[in-house]
Amino acid sequence: MAALTNAASASLVAPASVAARAGSSRRAAFQGARVPSNASARAGDAKRAAPLVRASADDAAPAFGRRDLAKGALAALSAPVIAAMPAGPAKAEEVSKYWDIVDLPLEPGVILLDIAFVDDKHGFLLGTRQTILETFDGGKTWDFKSVSNALDEDVNYRFNSVSFKGQEGWIVGKPAILLHTTDGGANWERVGLSPRLPGAPVLITATSSNGQAEMVTDEGAIYLTTDAARNWKAAVEETISATLNRTVSSGITGASYYTGTFSTISRNDDGEYIGLSSRGNFYMTWSPGQAYWQPHNRSSARRVQSMGWRPDGGIWELTRGGGIFFSTTAELPDNDDDFVEGKIGSRGFGLLDLGAKPNGKEFWIVGGSGSVFYSNDAGKSWKRDRGTDDVAANLYTVKFNDNDNGFILGNDGVLLKYNGRAV
Fold first, then answer.
1. What pTM, to 2 d.p., does this model score?
2. Which of 102, 180, 252, 392 has minimal Cβ neighbours within 10 Å of its Cβ?
3. DSSP string for 176-219
4. What is the pLDDT of residues 153-194, one digit of tens each?
């Protein structure tokens, strides 16, 4: 496989269906035209990054039959682009002591994948079937956000990740697409991506409000920009497949002749990444300054479902069959066995994601069939939130913006909003 430095020197051509802005020129990995969506963007200032992205999810999910209004409204749309909200903003109703469900008027089968906020009230919600929703009241109600002018016709995009620093924001998706805003999402413009990009973009992080961002693909390519995507620099020299196949004697189980991708990728505030192999049999880490991803054996005999960072800098790990493990240090473990198993009593329910409040004490875990668990002692003990048992969805992601504002994202357009009550 060609090194990423080769890909970084390739020119990027904007899609033929979009007219390039005259005089624009890009000379690095992501050379090409920026394509306005609604209007030209204006400069802005600072906010927060998305820590975890799921690099793959099943786009076919069982119907959750509460959305008759949405079905009727969206059935009339012949194009894949959703241009307008059909029946006013969605609203929330309580489903448990801690969570309210927001009845989003989405077509059945939409999987919600990421959420990020410009400020305390204004945010964006992404999903499959090119879903982009916008809120101006902290997530209580949502409307569709049209970016149709930035999209190719007859392409059904999956929007994977969104991140903001102040008014500057980024969205990435699959097929490979990158959107950029400098006015808090009022207008989005498209940045062309090279057809030689290794893998699909799955995680974007706005690292500053002056045009700085990091983008990661499911094949482990990491690119950095400091000039609002005019130029990009490759941070690693090769994909994870190339690294593993070059180091087949490293002792990493399942790494020989590896041609897979990451299933989840997580970034901490220090710019370190942890990526889980698509088969869940090992994981890899990367720190700024390293030329390659570093492979690690999993700590559990069971395959791993998801991994991420704790607020203290340590790592959590969720395994098949409802297991949970924590690293014994507040940093990347030195040894593969530096993990201890937690006691959660999941009764075999699949656990898919862990989110922590910034206070570092209150943890939440979500999983299949509406499973929600919480801990108020940093994972030492757990209780089940039985109020969500009737939520007919798999819950993939849980994120907290601050101690009082959090969201759970699931399939079939299920969005739960934390109501602020203490556990």
1. 0.80
2. 392
3. TEEEEESSTTSS-EEE---TT-SS-EEEEEE--SSS-EEEEETT
4. 889 999 999 999 999 999 999 999 999 999 999 999 999 999
State the Cα–Cα distance between residues 113 and 174, nearest whole angstrom: 12
C-alpha distance across the termini of the chain, in Å: 50
379 in Cβ contact with 334 (< 8 Å): no
Backbone angles phi, psi at 327, to 5 degrees: -70, 150
CA angle 135, 141, 142 (to 5 degrees): 50
Give the percent of the chain with pLDDT over 70: 75
Q: Say if residue 41's pLDDT is above 70.
A: no
Distances (CA, A) of 243 to 10, 232, 257, 332: 21, 21, 10, 19
- List residues bridging with 36 in a β-sheet: 189
- Coil, strand or helix at 240: helix
Distance of CA 102 to the CA centre of its chain: 20
The structure tokens listed for 350 are 């699949």
Per-residue tokens: 148: 């149709």
Tokens of 316: 């959590």
- Return d(Cα 94, Cα 49) in angstroms, integer: 28
CA nearest neighbour of 120 among 421, 423, 422, 420? 420
Looking at residue 12, what is its pLDDT? 36
Bridge partner list, 355: 364
Reduced to 3 states (helix: H, G, I; strand: E, B; else coil), residue 72 is helix
The answer to whether 88 and 94 are in contact (CB under 8 A) is no
Pairing outcome for strands 233-234 and 222-225: antiparallel
Residues 6 or more apart in contact with residue 78 via CB below 8 angstroms: none
- Residue 101: pLDDT over 90: yes
Residue reference for tokens 């697409």? 177
For residue 20, which amino acid is it?
Answer: A
pLDDT higher for 151 or 30?
151
| Beta sheet of 315-319, edge-to-edge order | 304-309, 315-319, 323-327, 339-341
Q: Which two tokens stand for residue 195?
A: 């057809």
